[in-house]
Write a structure and sequence with these properties.
By secondary structure, this protein is of the alpha/beta class. Strand 13 and strand 14 form a beta hairpin. It is globular and about 55 Å long. This is Carbamate kinase.
Length: 314
């Protein structure tokens, strides 16, 4: 019996200190090779989704830097689509190469530029919270605010200041109904990159909105809609911790929904970093009754062999 897993990669896992296309493509090639053990035994099908926060921010800066009447800067939803396309292209190439290297070249790799339906009345539109783009030091803030007076900036988990934009919750992956035949063909699917392009209903169609959807919440929705048996959220640490960086720090391994709810109530997880991942994982478990794991790419072998990582169960 072949199981199905959705793997969520962070945008920061793609963008290294070198922001060039060549460097990002190389980073994805390394990542794709690291993920091959998930599917090498042909007993698991993988759907990949990814973040794009750094890429969106950088591309927006490029757009604004060359903004003119003849060459106007594109809006945020369009920039999201552009980065989803470029990262999807790089990811297809990386996984095609990795699968060929591991004797799995018979499986095609497909990237789909996807839209994500949101509620136009979502309170997130009145409370920008999603960081995008590069980090700025406190000393750089006056110049950034002078250059971009409309930006909202927020301190991001002790790493500096970043621009923040609205981040509404995903209601539906518009194209998900078409993914069934693609997955049944045995293809490796890359979808909902950067959380998908946020859209609202517009008569008989949809229109894009100025926002960025959290890729982990989108991954949870994607995993639900493609009938995944498990959601795997990859981040910088092997496990989620409670009492983080304190003498009584404890890593979480297999935990129930009730335990996680209690930890959230205690304020154990930072709002700008681990909390969205935990909440997204819990959302998948709640809606499907299936497990979600949060761990690092480096811990993948131990995850496969020993069920390592923080696994949330009903």
């Amino acid at each position: 019996m072949v199981s199905r897993i959705v793997v969520a990669l962070g945008g920061n896992a793609i963008l290294t200190k070198d922001p060039s296309a060549a460097a990002q493509k190389k980073a994805l090639e390394v990542t794709a090779e690291q993920l091959m053990p998930l599917i090498k035994d042909n007993d698991r099908q993988m759907v990949v989704t990814h973040g794009n926060g750094p890429q969106v921010g950088n591309l927006l800066l490029q757009q604004l830097g060359s903004d003119s009447e003849k060459n106007p800067a594109m809006p945020l939803d369009t920039v999201g689509a552009m980065t989803q396309g470029e990262i999807g292209f790089w990811t297809v190439q990386a996984f095609t190469r990795a699968m060929a290297n591991n004797g799995l070249e018979r499986y095609p790799v497909i990237s789909a530029v996807t839209q994500t339906l949101v509620d136009e009345n979502d309170p997130a539109f009145k409370n920008a919270s999603k960081p995008i783009g590069p980090f700025y030091t406190e000393e750089q803030l006056p110049e950034i605010k002078k250059q971009f007076p409309d930006w909202e900036l927020m301190e991001d988990a002790g790493r500096g200041y970043r621009r923040v934009v609205p981040s509404p919750k995903p209601l539906e992956i518009i194209e998900a109904k078409a993914f069934g035949p693609i997955l049944e063909s045995g293809s490796l699917l890359i979808a909902s990159g950067g959380g998908g392009i946020p859209v609202i209903k517009d008569g008989n169609g949809y229109k894009g909105v100025e926002a960025v959807i959290d890729k982990d919440f989108s991954a949870a929705k994607l995993a639900e809609m493609v009938g995944a048996d498990e959601l795997l959220i990859l981040t910088a640490v092997d496990n989620v911790f409670v009492n983080f960086n304190k003498p009584n720090q404890k890593k979480l391994e297999t935990v129930t929904m009730a335990e996680m709810k209690a930890y959230i109530k205690e304020g154990q997880f930072a709002a700008g970093s681990m909390l969205p991942k935990v909440e997204a994982a819990m959302e998948f478990v709640t809606r499907t009754g299936r497990p979600a794991t949060i761990t690092s790419l480096e811990n993948l072998e131990d995850f496969l062999n020993n069920d390592s990582g923080t696994k949330i169960i009903p």
